[in-house]
Amino acid sequence: MSRMELRPFGVATAHTAAVIRAVPGEETRLWDLHPVPRLWSLREQLAHIALIRESIICTLTDRDPEALKAIFEGEPWIGSGGTLDLLEAWELHTRRCQIMLADLHTADLGKPFQTEFGNVSTPENYLRLMLLEETHHRAQMILLLRMFQLEAPDFPGRAWAELNM
Q1: CATH code of residue 34
Q2: How many domains does the chain have?
Q3: Structural domain includes residue 147
Q4: Does residue 94 carry a pLDDT above 50?
Q5: What percent of the chain has pLDDT over 90?
Q6: Model confidence over 3-48: pLDDT tens digits?
Q7: Which of 61, 83, 88, 160 is deepest in the core (most CB within 10 A)?
Q8: Is residue 87 part of a domain?
């Protein structure tokens, strides 16, 4: 994919990184709090975002998503580790995604394929779904930040508008 086509991925990635940085660096306790029943913790939300992103990109680039278990069943995605650990893990995750996305060809984005669930979709739709899923869970993280009386980063609406999204 071209750099221009990857811009929405980059904006979403940067906004999620800003949400991670909004939790004080020395703080580890807040990452695992459940202040509301059935609302995932900050760590669970972030791990879900990263796992979904990599799973979808693996599917689109014919890689085995089973390999992701080893990554996302370990530290800092589960267990312990604070903001700095999670930010480093997010950056490594982002690099893996960028490498895989580079294997997607613009001409193939509209070609239908059958998903693992038996639906027919296109890579373009799957990538759109990935961004929507990330936005949803990032919003949940922002809600938790506000509940913990932390300042959430501004929404990058101007950046999205400049991308004609």
Answers
A1: 1.20.120.450
A2: 1
A3: yes
A4: yes
A5: 59
A6: 446 677 888 999 999 999 999 977 778 999 999 888 999 999 999 9
A7: 83
A8: yes
CA Rg value for the chain: 16
Provide the mean pLDDT of the chain.
Answer: 88
On whether residue 1 sits in a domain, the answer given is no
- 139: pLDDT confidence band, cut at 50, 70 and 90? very high
CB-CB neighbours of 20 under 10 Å? 21
User: What residues contact residue 125 under an 8 Å CB cut-off, 6+ apart?
Assistant: none
Task: Give the residue numbers spanning the domain of 35.
Answer: 7-162
- CA 141 to chain centroid, in Å, comes to 12
Number of residues written out for the chain: 165
Yes or no: say if 135 and 15 are a contact pair by the CB < 8 Å rule.
no
In a domain, 30, yes or no: yes
Is 17 buried (19+), middle (13-18) or exposed (0-12) by CB count in 10 A?
middle
Q: In whole angstroms, what separates CA 85 from the centre of its chain?
A: 16
DSSP class of residue 15 equals H
